[in-house]
Design a protein that fits this description.
The protein has 338 residues and is α/β, with parallel strands linked by helices. 42% of the residues lie in helices and 20% in strands. The N and C termini lie far apart (67 Å).
């Protein structure tokens, strides 16, 4: 297991906004402002063209701006997007239905993809399934261009055969967060953890897993969150069983308030969520299994340390042997003189 210290900004949800073709700077600013309003707590990264870099930085100082290297072409934008997707974003938002960013987001994003267009409409983008074909499901976008004005529109229409746009209402964008109260952590610390989750995550839907006796300390202060009581205080087995049952609820984040080995193991093995520790010193730590590279480093260190340890033991043994031999020789000389 690996513990990695995180700043609060690193724990926040991360979002990638991709600029579209032929969007004027003022229109893109309105799109970005709509994104900031809907994803209020998120860390926003904007992938845009070189001619908008200074404009975005001047008007949105808290936003990270990335531009394609060496080239401003749309294909270079898609390649830069693929490079950025090596990070783990929680949301991807495209500002137009350009083929390459949509394909990159759906295939490599591993997170929900949304469209926020120049008409300031919100849509969720997903693959069209076989069941959609049978049912004849159509995309919900209202401002679709009806005429084809060239190869670009033809490609977009071909791409629409493989995707479905559905309306993205405010309640569609939720972050399911599980906070675990192990029963012996201070009540005040659990309250602080809940407040931190409300401030950090985008539209958080929080569930608190705790014990029967401790629910009363939280339900009046946080009527909007859900409580799961895992039996009477001290019943660790019931707590772990209840936690295992909750693995199907698809939480995006699991927050631990103490380093309990069973809770950590269960969270990492079954929850399929990002696991974080919020400790009593109000520090954030991410938890994950050590990767293959980490194990290889440990094995390499052990292989290097074995010869070094053998050398040190041999040197120490030689020094002790030499000291013992010298003492014996001195005792022999003393005995011979007397």
């Amino acid at each position: 297991m690996v513990l990695d210290r995180k700043d609060e900004k690193d724990v926040r949800h991360s979002l990638l906004l991709v600029d579209g073709d032929f969007i004027l700077p003022n229109n893109f600013a309105l799109i970005l402002n709509g994104v900031k309003n809907r994803f209020r707590n998120a860390r926003i990264t904007v992938l845009t063209f070189e001619n908008k870099e200074l404009f975005v930085k001047d008007n949105f100082p808290g936003v990270e701006v990335v531009i394609p290297k060496n080239n401003t072409g749309k294909f270079r934008l898609a390649l830069e997007m693929l490079s950025l997707l090596r990070r783990r974003f929680d949301f991807i938002i495209v500002s137009s239905l350009s083929v390459s960013p949509v394909i990159a987001g759906l295939m490599f994003g591993r997170c929900p993809v949304f469209l926020h267009n120049k008409w300031f409409e919100w849509y969720r983008i997903r693959y069209r399934t076989f069941l959609d074909l049978i049912r004849g499901v159509k995309s919900a976008d209202k401002n679709r261009r009806k005429r084809n004005n060239g190869i670009k529109d033809i490609l977009k229409n071909i791409g629409r055969l493989f995707i479905v746009l559905s309306e993205a209402r405010e309640d569609c964008i939720k972050s399911r967060v599980l906070i675990e109260d192990n029963g012996y952590t201070d009540i005040g610390h659990i309250v602080t953890a809940i407040k931190q989750a409300q401030q950090i995550f985008v539209n958080p839907d929080i569930t608190l897993l705790t014990y029967d006796e401790r629910v009363q300390h939280f339900n009046s202060a946080f009527p909007q969150i859900r409580f799961v009581a895992a039996g009477r205080y001290g019943n660790r087995l019931k707590f772990i069983v209840e936690m295992h049952k909750m693995r199907r609820q698809r939480f995006s984040h699991v927050i631990l308030t103490a380093l309990d080995i069973p809770n950590i193991s269960l969270s990492l093995l079954f929850m399929r969520a990002e696991v974080a520790l919020y400790n009593k010193w109000h520090q954030w730590w991410s938890l994950d299994f050590r990767g293959i590279g980490g194990y290889l480093k440990v094995i390499l260190k052990i292989l290097i340390m074995i010869p070094a340890l053998i050398y040190l033991l041999s040197a120490a043994g030689f020094i002790l042997f030499r000291t013992k031999l010298r003492m014996c020789f001195m005792n022999f000389k003393i005995n011979k003189a007397t």
